Amino acid sequence: MNSHFLPGISIDCVVFGFHGNQLKFLVTRIINSDLYALPGGFLHEDENLSDAAQRILFERTNLSNIYLEQFHVYGDKNRRSEETQRQILEGIRASPEAVAFLSQRFISIGYYALIDFTKAEPIADYLSASSEWRDLSDIPPLIFDHNQMVQKALETLRITLDHRDVGYNLLPPTFTMSELQALHETILGEKLVRSNFQRKMLSGGLLERIEKKMTGAAHKAPFLYRFRHDE
Fold it and tell me: Which residues form a coiled coil (predicted)?
């Protein structure tokens, strides 16, 4: 275990991607176990929090300059199960130094990330056997308070859903109105009335319709849209 990590501080990330009209998130399976966790890591002594989160996610996705938002701090004194902690340490076959570091109480800084699903390469770190995408409808039991983190990140994402940044970072550069509606529906967990949704989106000033239409459609080709650039 790196001796230059700050003690007692960890970073956990809820990484969202959008694919097949479904919002997905990354989970890792801890090596030699059936335990699942969010991607995470620790803070170097000479590192800013946001830089540490970017580094951790680069190591897990091979993407840089990821859109990140800090959404909560987790510091409950009972947030970690001793039995789960024992299974983790046995699974990773930790050295005495690592056991001492990982056994201390941690305060975790929660970030959510919005990334392009098609460009991400889920990568398992040295503590993980695998890294994979899961649908929000298929959330496995996660270690400690990580399930709470997913729900809190999703709640925060819903609050900011009408901001440009959400769709801009989860959708391709050009998209149909149906794709945008599907994104909103999967985040909100409810169906939306098409006409009302389209009226709201077009009146908000965030979108511009481009002349090119979607090709290969079975019926009338729908218009393509993109988000307006910041002025």
Answer: none
CATH number of the domain located at residue range(s) 173-227 in this protein: 1.10.10.10
CA distance 122 to 30: 14
Q: Name the residue ranges covered by the structural domains of the chain.
A: 5-159, 173-227
167-197 pLDDT per residue, tens:
999 999 999 999 999 999 999 999 999 999 9
Helices (H) and strands (E) in the chain, counts: 7, 10
Q: How many angstroms from the chain centroid is the CA of residue 41?
A: 14
Token pair of 13 as six digits: 């990330």
- Does the predicted model carry a pTM greater than 0.90? yes
Residues contacting 126, CB < 8 A, separation 6+: none
pLDDT tens for residues 124-156? 988 899 999 999 989 999 999 999 999 999 999
- Topology, domain 5-159: Nucleoside Triphosphate Pyrophosphohydrolase (3.90.79)
Do residues 27 and 135 make contact, with C-beta atoms less than 8 angstroms apart?
Answer: no
